[in-house]
């Protein structure tokens, strides 16, 4: 009897709402994700196999009319991002929309009580590198983001964690490899040693993959001014790890939280 109960528990964990699931291509997994916030209710079904297919709807459950701005399309966004880096899976068929974000009252639309907006999108297990090139995404933890921006109000935001295991060897460094490469650089080593001598702890930030480069960042809070911090930013070739540039800045804790 205990074995049956344990089996049912594991089955619920694999298919339940908001659970972490490991998926390799060919291993079909289906998840549901339901969430309510700020008068909006999200219902989503995520099918994970060779690609990641998301079918989602968002419903106005507030009892009042919700206003949104659709100048740059309906602001119901879905994307899949690596947990420790700004690295997005490529959406099939999605084209980058050039939109000048200028306020025009004519762009405001109303979402009536109980009205539902739907969206379906499929993601490849790939990320953009540069010049239209794409490479296999890295294995690891990812978050599926669901957001809806209401006019003049806080946005709706929910995430669902996924563990994806890729079947291809990545052509780019992992985040950990990129950070290790950065720390091997003499200039970076000196910056770290200088701050550690002052008993200032070093913290790493999420990496950014853009234009064929990994950007990794470390910061350290001032010993006497805990609201200020020193930051070092290292750009490197995403494939080879060759350092392309190192930059420094001092900023406030609030500025760092905004950037993150």
Describe the structure.
This protein is an alpha+beta fold. 17% of the residues lie in helices and 45% in strands. It is built from four helices and 18 strands. The strands form four sheets. Strands 2, 3, 4, 8, 10 and 11 form a six-stranded antiparallel β-sheet that branches. A hairpin with a 2-residue loop joins β2 and β3. It starts with a helix and ends with a helix.
A few lines on this structure:
The chain has helices at 2-15, 175-184, 186-197, 253-259, and strands spanning 22-23, 29-37, 40-48, 52-60, 66-69, 76-82, 85-86, 89-91, 108-111, 116-128, 134-136, 140-148, 156-164, 203-204, 207-210, 213-221, 228-237, 243-252. With 260 residues, it is an alpha+beta fold.
Oligomeric status: single chain
Order of helices and strands: HEEEEEEEEEEEEEHHEEEEEH
Radius of gyration over all CA atoms, rounded: 22 Å
Shape: globular
Q: Let me know the number of strands.
A: 18
Helical content stands at 10-25%
Low confidence ranges: 1-19
